[in-house]
Amino acid sequence: MEKVIDGEKLTIPTHVAVIMDGNGRWAKKRLMPRNFGHKAGAKAIERISSDAKELGIKYLTVYAFSTENWKRSVEEVSGIMNILRDYLDICIKDAEKNRMRVRVLGDRTALDKDIIDKIEELEGVTSVYDEFNFNIAINYGGRDDIRRGIEKILADYKEGKLDGNITEALISSYLDTKDMPDPDLLIRTSGELRLSNFLIWQLAYTEFYFTDCLWPDFDKDELIKAIRYYNGRDRRYGGVK
Ligand code: FPP
After folding, report:
1. How far is the CA of 63 from the centre of ligand 1 (A)?
2. Whether the predicted model's global pTM rises above the 0.85 cut
3. What is the CATH number of the domain that holds 124?
4. Which of 32, 91, 155, 236 could hold 27 in an S-S bridge, CB 3.0 to 4.6 Å?
């Protein structure tokens, strides 16, 4: 999809994935506890989901909590879970307003029951929308996504639902992102240059954009900068143009 933004014609990526890093540093700069940064990070998610829709992005996937984040202090983890609770309540209202379908990626079975209930309600209520898809990765790990997918493939094989012919498309259809296109653009904030186990299968041909901007400061202008960068890339998918 093409769109004119500030007088410039830009191709809008269909699927944008975001590693939201830098909440801790943002809080530290203000001499505040880390969870103050996570709270500001959740506000930034609220803003960016509606900005992304407005810009014509069809899928936005954000990395809110990784399978490795449990290693943080009990105080920080429980703080993030409380922010998540509040965020899910806000999200259900926003979703109705913005007509966005929300899905949660990752292994939710490890989350508290009340959070699982909120997620199920959010996914159920918003499943009628298809204009904009917003995915939140919680207790998500790319390796764990593949591991869980293999478990399901094995179970279906044993039940005779699969014939043992394993194609890439089959594997994709057993991941949390089944039915979604792979991301076109990955954004990572706060200057770190790594994947941190995010969507490792799905990012095979994705363009990467890194910015020093800390996640709570990330806004629509920063998103447009990332899209502009994406427009300067030459996607060859391993071929020659
Ligand atoms: C990284 O900042 C951020 C995360 C742990 C994931 C993103 C979390 C949020 C945006 C807040 C929670 C929101 C929801 C909806 C659960 P960091 O702590 O690694 O920052 P640092 O590298 O500066 O320490």
Report:
1. 9
2. yes
3. 3.40.1180.10
4. 32
